[in-house]
Amino acid sequence: MKPDRNSTPSLLDVKGLTRRFGGLVAVNDVSFSVKPGEIFTVIGPNGAGKSTMFKLIGAFIRPTSGDVVFEGKSLVGLAPHQAAARGVVRTFQETTIYREMTTMETVRTAFHLQCRATSLGAFFNTRQARADEAEANRAAEEILELLQLQHVRHEQAKNLPHGYLRALGIAMALAARPKLLMLDEPFAGMNPEETDAAVQMVRRIRDQGITVMLVEHDMHAVMRISDRIAVLNFGRKIAEGTPQEIQNDQNVIDAYLGQEDEELGI
Ligand SMILES: Nc1ncnc2c1ncn2[C@@H]1O[C@H](COP(=O)(O)OP(=O)(O)OP(=O)(O)O)[C@@H](O)[C@H]1O
After folding, report:
1. Do 185 and 145 belong together in one domain?
2. What CATH number is attached to the domain comprising 195?
């Protein structure tokens, strides 16, 4: 039997979070909790505040008021790399991938960035540096296997198709050993087969014990993959619940009416 959600301590607590841009309230008094091991998705019509919410959680921008609490401690005021060191890691954009490096080199480099080996240690070939090297190789192999990238391990990024580059951005994030992995529209621009594969990939990541938070527009994928969903509209949270609860929520249906495609998939 699954443990009662309410009795499990949260990994992330978003508390009364508000962010203004001049006169515009992009995120307005939003609260929710993410439990360890969940796949939690934030949805909402265009301009609802989803990206702003992600930036607030990753400490890329500061809230006007409210708090982001991770493992019981506030992330507000930290720099993004400090939030990442606590375990809140956002996937890397394809544009930040160094195109001359191979898949393996990219993941190993990302791993080294948070590894103990100093450049001086590596230069003198210390025992610590050699141990770190072996650990980087092992960790990189594990990540490539998890994301099914082994067969392109020696390909340079510039030769990889779009879908692989996106997976490589996720691989780099995994090298930072996240507790909470944040994925911004991971299924955007994918055909149904690619989406299927990406859904399986996100599930495998979660099965490694990593909690996953997504912002996503592809409602069919969202409804399949999410344990829980929060819905934003004009910066406010209008609903939160399981996919089934969200699909049947009249406020949510109303918010999506008039959208170009029947995004909710109902
Ligand atoms: N840096 C900024 N300065 C001013 N306004 C901003 C800024 N960032 C976002 N906004 C505004 O805040 C609101 C929420 O934007 P946000 O990008 O968070 O929405 P979203 O739900 O991610 O939208 P989409 O689905 O279209 O990506 C929008 O009205 C947007 O124009």
Report:
1. no
2. 3.40.50.300
* CA-proximal residue: ligand 1, atom 23 (nearest): 47
The residue nearest atom 5 of ligand 1, judged by CA position, is 21
Which stretch of 14-18, 37-41, 91-95, 223-227 has the lowest confidence by average pLDDT? 91-95
Q: Spell out the residues 6+ positions from residue 97 whose beta carbon is closer than 8 angstroms to its own.
A: 106, 157, 165, 168, 169, 172
Instruction: Tell me which residue of 172, 152, 184, 171 sits closest to 57, measured CA to CA.
Output: 184
- Can you tell me which atom of ligand 1 is nearest the CA of 54? 18
Can you give the pLDDT at residue 209?
A: 95
- From the CA of 53, give the closest atom in ligand 1: 18
**How many independent structural domains does the chain possess?**
2
> Residue 118 has what pLDDT?
45
Decide: 18 and 53 in contact? Cβ < 8 Å.
no
* 113 lies in the same domain as 183: no
Ligand 1, residue 215: give the atom nearest the CA.
22
217 or 125: which carries more pLDDT confidence? 217
* Whether residue 48 has its Cβ less than 6 Å from ligand 1: yes
Give the distance (Å) from ligand 1 centre to CA of residue 27.
9
Together in a domain, 141 and 10: no
Please name the residues in contact with 265: beta carbons below 8 A apart, sequence gap of 6 or more. 219, 220, 223, 247
Same domain, 182 and 155: no
Query: What tens digit of pLDDT does each residue of 78-122 get?
Result: 999 899 999 999 987 666 778 899 999 999 888 877 654 444 455
28 CB under 6 A from ligand 1? no
If asked whether residues 185 and 172 sit together in one domain, one would say no
For residue 132, the enclosing domain spans 95-177
Question: pTM (2 decimals)?
Answer: 0.89
Residue 169 has pLDDT above 70, yes or no: yes
What are the tokens at 196?
A: 């299927």
Helix or strand or coil: residue 11? coil
